[in-house]
Amino acid sequence: MKDFGNEEYSGDCFFLVGKIKGLDYTRSDDFVEILKAINQDLCLGIDEKIGQNTNQSKSQQLVTVPQMQNIVPANELKEKSFQIIEQLFSKSEMNFWQQYGVTRDILKKYNVISLRSFKSESNEGKTFQLESTPNEPIFGYLGKKFIKIYRPNSQLRFMYGGTVYENYCFGLEQLPSRGDILYITGGEKDVLSLSSHGFNAICFNSETATIPDNTIRKLSFMFKHIVILYDMDKTGLDSSLKLAKKYNELGVKRLLLPLSGTKEEKDISDYFRMGNTADDFRILFLDLLDTLYSDTMSILKSCEVNFDNPPPQSKMVVSVNDVPLGTQGNLLCITGGDG
Fold this sequence. Notes:
It is built from eleven helices and 13 strands. The chain is α+β, with helices and mostly antiparallel strands. It has three domains: 7-69, no CATH class; 83-162, no CATH class; 169-294, Dna Topoisomerase Vi A Subunit, Chain: A, domain 2 (3-Layer(aba) Sandwich). The radius of gyration is 30 Å and the shape is extended.
């Protein structure tokens, strides 16, 4: 189980049962109670007497559980099929994107389409179909074997069709081979907005998604600065802080936007929608660098030479034919021989 909205509700089956029963699966005594609860609820028949049936094979023991016959292994589950009918972006749909600075060329570059309809299967295997309306448009982020549905005005905003890769990363294919700054954002719309303003950006499936270590390491060779730019709500702040600490050794930085964190103003696309420009955003990043490297710059300040008021000439200590070999303020070592 993984709750992408709150990573505290993520774990295996033992974690889930413990959460329901009010038990801590990391404690040995509570874990035993969790096992007993699973045994009882699923009628597994695993008890103290099982040790007496040493000659009984595991397959014979499992046959006594009729519920197990209906379970289909995960690798045999049929993937969700989907059908889409694509249409041209309407004027109102383009107005939606343009408020964030997203252009038609950027939508095409990142394989974002407008849908007239989307047909797929629910988790229960029932077929359903969604129709686009002026009040509830349907957009699609096209992948190689899947599509991620985005309905900005609907209660259920995100849906999936096909098979979404575990390490889903939007915008990765559009990155240059080398660059100065890469922003990791919380969503596809943020990536599109940043790209439209001239910045490199990617996002993963959500702000609480696990980012593969090898991906961050490879990106650190491609870009001089990697910056976490998540939403300014509690989930975004907690997740960005956690990532910045985890990848501190790779120089990953965390940039906080001057936004309130409410639904109306919490991410970078809202930042641009509110009238801020690309230059305004660059100033935010430069201010971040000034803060991070203020101590280093203070040390380097003492090494600067003021040409209007240069330091006094150093007195010569050792010279050969009036050529100075050692002066005051410089280290000089005179030895007794080559050794």
